[in-house]
Design brief:
The protein folds into three domains: 74 residues, Multidrug-efflux Transporter Regulator, Chain: A, Domain 2; 72 residues, no CATH class; 79 residues, Alpha-Beta Plaits. It is 49% helix and 11% strand. Helix 1 packs across helix 3.
């Protein structure tokens, strides 16, 4: 490949001219001297290969500082590939940590979405309420913070182990779709002492298996009321 202008180098490497200049300023690629007789700076094929290396390393999540280290290892004669492998392993572990965090965030968002009845005044929005509350502040189950929602419900329910449980049925008015039933099932299921919940839109009722010592009928009925529905009867 013949000597090239910066525009041709950028085209061959699949980047913009400003990206090439940025890499030059960052010290990742060498900036050719301007010809004494005038004219354009010229680049060689190695510059194209180096830019492609940098771009692919960036796509894998390496920072510019880490890429600079990789380039240094690449250019050092006698470098053991274990050093490069260690860099790759460290980056993979970092990516795994980010994936775990993203999964926890997705679960928390799923639960926030599940608490939303899908209609009504914005001042009653359970999603906004959950996001507004400061982390660590005690709050009702229908208004937990994003971080608190990521905690599995079984952590709360484990306190009821060994207690006698009972089943109650709440007759509920105001549900207009299966989405309402799913919302109530989620909210009731997060209450302390609740072992199992089955909310049926077709039957307008919720069957709840719970530990009376951890949550009584009035508390469970209050959850239904706060969600915007009415308890017409308890049996």
């Amino acid at each position: 490949m013949a000597e090239m202008t910066i525009g041709r180098v950028a085209g061959k490497a699949g980047v913009g001219v400003e990206t090439v200049r940025f890499y030059e300023r960052s010290g990742l690629i060498a900036r050719p001297l301007r010809p004494t007789a005038g004219g354009f700076r010229v680049y060689d094929a190695e510059t194209v290969a180096r830019i492609r290396f940098i771009r692919q390393a960036q796509e894998l999540g390496f920072s510019l500082g880490e890429i600079r280290e990789l380039l240094s290892l690449r250019a050092t004669p006698g470098t053991d590939c274990r050093a490069v492998r260690a860099q790759a392993v460290a980056k993979r572990d970092e990516v795994d940590g980010k994936i775990g965090q993203l999964r926890r965030m997705r679960r928390a968002l799923d639960e926030l979405i599940a608490t939303c009845p899908g209609s009504g005044a914005v001042r009653e929005c359970t999603i906004l309420d959950g996001l507004e509350r400061p982390q660590g502040k005690k709050q009702p189950s229908s208004g937990r913070s994003l971080t608190q929602l990521a905690v599995p419900a079984r952590a709360t329910r484990s306190r009821t182990k060994g207690h006698v449980v009972k089943t109650i049925t709440l007759k509920i008015e105001g549900m207009h779709c299966d989405g309402c039933a799913q919302t109530l099932q989620f909210l009731l299921g997060r209450e302390a002492g609740v072992r199992k919940v089955d909310v049926r839109f077709a039957d307008s009722e919720a069957r709840i298996l719970h530990d009376p010592g951890a949550s009584d009928e009035k508390q469970l009925a209050a959850v239904v009321k706060k969600a915007g529905f009415r308890v017409a009867g308890i049996r």
